[in-house]
Design brief:
Shape: globular
Radius of gyration: 33 Å
Amino acid sequence: TTTTTTTNPTPPALVLLPARQATIIVQRHVDMGEIQELFDFLSLDARADVRGTAMEVVLGLTAAEGDGTRDAVFGGKLPFVDAIVQIAGDKRHPAVARDAWGALVNLSSAAEFANQMMDAGVVSRCVQGIAEPDTPHPDPLCMLLANLTRSDTVAQQLLDLRSVHPETGRDEPAIHRLVDIFCRHSAFNSNGNFHHLASVFFNISQCEQGRRMLMVKAGDGCILQRLLPFTQYEDSVIRRGGVIGALKNCCFDSAQHEWLLSDEVDLLPHLLLPLAGPEELDDDDMDGMPDDLQYLPPDKVREPDADLRKLLLEALLQLCATKHARDMFQAKKVYPILREHHKWEPEEDVQDACENVVSVLIADESGIPDLRKVELPDLDAVREAEAAAAAATAAAATADAPPPASEAETSSADAEANGSSADADASPAAAAAAASLD
């Protein structure tokens, strides 16, 4: 993540729970002899049925968090991760390989094991497996890649990978290949849904190179545009959430705002439509509004997940940083959509996010091209300067003050002041009376 960009926090790690929890070793004191024996059974030279049973046990152990068992078994000197990686790549026994990928998903939630996987070349193995249309278990590979790319180092490794498109023969970034597979999902491989690739895109968008790779211009591909329809993908909150998070992170690049809102991308309707409801708007409200937001059906449903609604509003707020975007928001009638959403919104923190956007739109009289480039004063320094000025003024007033008056002089001054006050009060009263008479 660049020092000038504050993007979304990294999502929590995914854990693939096993279908059958292992009870061997877990329910009693860990014995190093048993661990060694278990490790030996993972060898590709072991009998397939023995290796499969051992892999079931390992899968159960990788899900055992909180009692120290997992660290005791896999954190020792035995290269368990390397052995599991070898089994995951064994295509002769798909069921055993799937358990191996599941074990890697569970272990990848810990940085220590994630680093071991990176050194073992798991990132490229995941991409290769996902990109094969006949892979029998692509979703655990997507989950593993989502976990691993939570690390900036692994995300960078993925961004540096290249891939050859099987249909065009074109050499391209592996991310572009993954986007293509994500968009085709079950049509590419009916064995998986590829939803968790959205989390991968979310993760890589937290660094400048990742955002740049997603926002390639038309001559190099239309990557971001292909992701836009999934802001309303009803069948998976994971898919919607990853895409919305990536779009929000892309909105931090103010230099790209004009392009993001242009007809080439048309980002605005895809951010607003999940926030729009079935309310009927009058013609004045809809005058200039994007066609996709007009005359919505009476059964139109807003985004059901509060966190995703907040992400959408935060993306809009980031766009509000540039004058071009604020002007477009006014012309495209964003306010009526937000007004109706605020009336409906049940969550207070999401209401606050909506109010932040509206307040910028209503108060936009600055004409500043990019609000994020405005240098704000140091508030502590301002307070110190104000305090020093106040102290200096008080000291000067004390030095110039006349000596205290005598009691007689004070009484005389009070009398004169009272008289002047009475005269001053009489003048308006007389003027009012005169006006009344006239």
